[in-house]
Design goal:
single chain, 92 residues, mainly alpha
């Protein structure tokens, strides 16, 4: 697995999944929003995604850069939805 594959799978996909999948489980705690936003916000830093994409464009890897953007956004949305569904099922 290359660097971009690992970053994509671990951060771009993992962050939204964890945020909506497990965030609701701690919302009853005091400062839960700070805990979820602080930890996962630092984990899924959008600026890192932006810099990586710009670097790919600068290296002339246009197709890879657009693929990275598409896979990150679509994958993140799909896994955020999946995490939310799992959390809803667990709390029902």
């Amino acid at each position: 697995m290359g660097y971009f594959d690992g970053q994509l799978a671990g951060v771009s996909y993992g962050g939204p999944y964890l945020w909506l999948g497990f965030g609701p489980l701690v919302y009853g705690l005091s400062h839960a929003h700070l805990l979820v936003t602080g930890f996962l916000g630092g984990f899924t830093t959008f600026s890192a995604f932006s810099v990586e994409t710009i670097l790919l464009f600068r290296k002339g890897e246009t197709v890879l850069a657009w693929g990275y953007v598409l896979a990150s956004v679509a994958g993140g949305l799909i896994l955020a939805w999946t995490g939310e569904r799992i959390a809803s099922a667990l709390s029902a």
